[in-house]
Amino acid sequence: MPAGVVDAAAKGVRLDRPATILLRRASGAKQLAAASSHLLFRATILATLALVVLFAVHYPSLLSRSFSLSSSSPSSSSPHRRSSHRSLLDSGATTYRGAAWEREVRRSATPRRNGGLSVLVTGAAGFVGAHCSVALHARGDGVVGLDNFNAYYDVSLKRARSRLLLSSRGVVVLDADINDGALLERLFAAVPFTHVLHLAAQAGVRYAMKAPQAYVASNVAGLVGVFEAAARHADPQPAIVWASSSSVYGLNGETPFSEDHRTDRPASLYAATKKAGEAIAHAYNHIYGLSITGLRFFTVYGPWGRPDMAYFSFARAIVSGEPITLFADARRDFTYIDDVARGCLGALDTAGKSTGSKSGKKSGPAPLRVYNLGNTSPVAVTRMVAILEKLLGKKAHKRVVTMPSNGDVPFTHANVSHAARDFGYRPTTSLDVGLRHFVEWFVKYYKLDDIKSGSSNVLLAAGKTTKRKKSMAMSAAS
C-alpha cells in the first residue's frame, strides 16, 4: 500500500468524498421525510378530534342512544316489523347507554309528589297505555314509557300519542321491544321503579288467525321477559299490574262474568295467550314473590282509540259511506277509557310489595290478584251504531250477518264487585256520553269539520259544554 494512503487512513481521512456528500444528503432527506410524516400524523389526529367534537355538538342523537319521539310513520308490509324511525337519541341499536339517556329516563321516572309512584308503562303509545301515562303524570307520579310502535294499526296515531306525552307531560317513551331482555335489564338498573304497568301486547281477536306467532311472541314470550327482568334484575322488585282480557271467559255461559268463573274454554288464540299469561303470572308470583295484578278489560273505547275496534272502524265507514258488517244479536260491555284508566291507577295504588330478591329468597309470596274492569251494562252493537249515526249526522249502510267462528263471542258482561271492594272501581260513563267524547275527538283529529250535515254544529256545541277532567283525558290534554 502506498505511504500516502496509509497516512490518510491512519488520520481518518475519507478518500471517497463525493460519496460521503451523497450519503449525508440522503440521510437529511430521510430525517426531513420522517419529520413531515410525524407532523402530518399529528395534524390528522387533531383534525379527527375536531370532527368528533363537531359531530358530538351537532349530532348528539347518534352518540348517546335513547328514546323515540317523532311522529313520522314508516311504511311496512308487516304489522310486526319494527319502525325504522328513530328519535333524538337512538341510532337504531337495541342497547341503550350514555349519561344523557340515563339522565332523561331518570328525570321522566322521578315522582313530583311525596309518596309518588315511579312507573314503567309498557305499550305507552297504545290506547290504554297513553291514557294511563297521562293520568299518572297528572297526579305527580314518575312515568317512563316503552313501545315498539308496530304497524298492526296506523303507526302515525301511536306517534301522535307519544308526541302528546312528551310535549304536554314530558313523559319519555322508549322505542323498544319487551322481548329485548338486555334493554329491560339496563332500564331496571338505571331506575328503581316501584311499579310496572304492563300493557304491551299483540291486540285483536281475528288477526290471530292470520299471524298466530305474533301473539305468542308478544303476549307469552314478552310477558315472560317482563316478569324475568322484574324478578331477576330489578332491585327492589317492582309490583306489576298487567293487562289480561275479558276474552279469557271465552265460551263461559254464566253471566255476568265473575273472576270466580271458569276460564278454561277460550274461543280464540288471543284469549288463549291471555289465559296462558295468567298461569305464568301465578308461577312468577309463587317462585319469586312478585306482586302481580291482572286486569281483565271489557271492550275499551274512547278518544285516541284503536282504529281496528268496531266503534272506530264503524265511524270511519259511516263518514266515508262504506258499508259496515254487524253480527246479529252481538252485545258488548262497552267501557269508557277514563273509567279503565281510573281502574288501572286503583290497581297500582293498592298493589302489595313484591317480596322476593335477586337471590331468589323471599319472605312469602305477595297476593296474586285478578280483577274485571268493565261497565256492567251490556249494549247491543246495533245500538252503538245508532248512536254513531246520530252524532255523525249520517246513516250507516248496514249488513247484518250471523257471527262466524272467528274468535268473537256473542256477548260480554262484567261483574266488577271485587274491584269495587278493593280499590273503589265504579264506572260512571254511559255509552251515549262516551261516544260523544270519541266523536268530538274523531272529527277534530281527522279534520272532518267540513262534514255536510248539521252534526258539525252539534259536535262543536258539545265540545264547548262538555267538562272533563284533564288528568284523565288525552283529548283534553291535547
From TrEMBL:
Family annotation (Gene3D superfamilies)? NAD(P)-binding Rossmann-like Domain
Q: Where in the cell is it found?
A: Golgi apparatus, Golgi stack membrane
Q: How does this chain sit within the bilayer?
A: Multi-pass membrane protein
Q: What is its EC number?
A: 5.1.3.6
Q: Which InterPro entries match?
A: Epimerase_deHydtase (IPR001509), NAD(P)-bd_dom_sf (IPR036291)
NAD-dependent epimerase/dehydratase domain: from which residue to which, for each copy? 119-350
Q: Which domain of life is it from?
A: Eukaryota
Keyword check for Phosphoprotein? no
Broad EC category: isomerase
**Which controlled-vocabulary keywords does the entry list?**
Isomerase, Membrane, NAD, Transmembrane, Transmembrane helix
Pfam families named in the record = Epimerase (PF01370)
Residue spans crossing the bilayer: 39-59
Does the record bear Transmembrane in its keywords? Answer: yes
Give me the stretches of Low complexity compositional bias: 69-78
GO cellular component terms given for this protein = Golgi cisterna membrane
The entry assigns this protein to a family as follows: Belongs to the NAD(P)-dependent epimerase/dehydratase family.
Which protein, by its recorded name, is this?
A: UDP-glucuronate 4-epimerase
Source species taxonomy? Eukaryota, Viridiplantae, Streptophyta, Embryophyta, Tracheophyta
